[in-house]
Amino acid sequence: MPELPEVEVVRRGLERWVAGRTVTEVEVLHPRAVRRHPAGGADFAARLEGQRFGVARRRGKYLWLPLADTGTSVLGHLGMSGQLLVQPEETADEKHLRIRIRFAASDGDSAAGTTGTELRFVDQRTFGGLSLHDQTPDGLPDVIGHIARDPLDPEFDDAAFQSALRLRRTTVKRALLDQSLISGVGNIYADEALWRSRLHYDRPTATLTRPRSAELLGHVRDVMNAALDVGGTSFDSLYVNVNGESGYFDRSLDAYGREDEPCHRCGTPMRRRAWMNRSSYFCPRCQRPPRTSA
């Protein structure tokens, strides 16, 4: 599932190609793509047509497009395989196209020699979707008002995070994946930050000193910024940016997906362990397990 860097790459693409555009037509081609919009596809289309998109926003793994002057937003949930693609109208439909949003013609379209562009939601596995929501006073769709700020947010409170981390009475990886504590971190970047911090995923949060928790947070930021620089992590063709291009951070991973490969720091074969219906990758020498678990 896309994590913060992948969603931010998509957000930047939408900011460039979609912000300020006026919607002229919406086609909902699969009902599951709007299942989080209880009123259904016809209502979703009717409420969106004629509206103008503002600048795309993101909090953690969540992405939305505000509608100018309405107090509502289109929330995009990418799921496992969702893609938001900006395409010329004449481009052939993708096999798993679920929603089409057409825009009014613009000077940019004319200069590109096209009849117009459209935003397409493509989703092979149909776990994702789009939905309309009212906004909270700080501009978030109301359904994600409980989501914490992410570590790349300028208003993220480092001291509050460090204090809350020690009080959670859990293990460090569980805490990193708790979106009410810190948003945007998923399985890949948690494993990468823990490897850089030499912390085992089952280390109790209560044992982390303030310097150690600060170091961990620094590594979370570093690994996410490094991933952003190369377009995120793409293990297959399902994650792409709005232009259909893959990211390349999978070539720089130190932990995730490297079972039995030598640790980049000490050469010990990396290990994988089943963890909360996922996998955790770690170095058994650099990231020694705790003597007791939380």
TrEMBL record:
SUPFAM superfamilies according to UniProt: Glucocorticoid receptor-like (DNA-binding domain), N-terminal domain of MutM-like DNA repair proteins, S13-like H2TH domain
Reported cofactor(s): Zn(2+)
Catalytic activity: Hydrolysis of DNA containing ring-opened 7-methylguanine residues, releasing 2,6-diamino-4-hydroxy-5-(N-methyl)formamidopyrimidine; 2'-deoxyribonucleotide-(2'-deoxyribose 5'-phosphate)-2'-deoxyribonucleotide-DNA = a 3'-end 2'-deoxyribonucleotide-(2,3-dehydro-2,3-deoxyribose 5'-phosphate)-DNA + a 5'-end 5'-phospho-2'-deoxyribonucleoside-DNA + H(+)
Record-annotated Formamidopyrimidine-DNA glycosylase catalytic domain positions: 2-128
Binding note for cofactor: Binds 1 zinc ion per subunit.
Residue numbers annotated as active site: P2 (schiff-base intermediate with dna), E3 (proton donor), K61 (proton donor), R278 (proton donor)
Sorted UniProt keywords: DNA damage, DNA repair, DNA-binding, Glycosidase, Hydrolase, Lyase, Metal-binding, Multifunctional enzyme, Zinc, Zinc-finger
Gene3D superfamilies reported in the protein's UniProt record: 1.10.8.50, MutM-like, N-terminal
Family matches, as CDD domains: EcFpg-like_N
All residue ranges annotated as the FPG-type domain in the record: 254-288
Positions of DNA binding: H96, R125, R168
GO molecular function terms attached to this record: class I DNA-(apurinic or apyrimidinic site) endonuclease activity; oxidized purine nucleobase lesion DNA N-glycosylase activity
The EC number(s) this enzyme carries: 3.2.2.23, 4.2.99.18
Function: Involved in base excision repair of DNA damaged by oxidation or by mutagenic agents. Acts as DNA glycosylase that recognizes and removes damaged bases. Has a preference for oxidized purines, such as 7,8-dihydro-8-oxoguanine (8-oxoG). Has AP (apurinic/apyrimidinic) lyase activity and introduces nicks in the DNA strand. Cleaves the DNA backbone by beta-delta elimination to generate a single-strand break at the site of the removed base with both 3'- and 5'-phosphates.
PANTHER family: FORMAMIDOPYRIMIDINE-DNA GLYCOSYLASE (PTHR22993)
Family affiliation: Belongs to the FPG family.
Subunit structure comment from the entry: Monomer.
Protein name: Formamidopyrimidine-DNA glycosylase
Organism: Streptomyces zaomyceticus
Gene name of this polypeptide: mutM
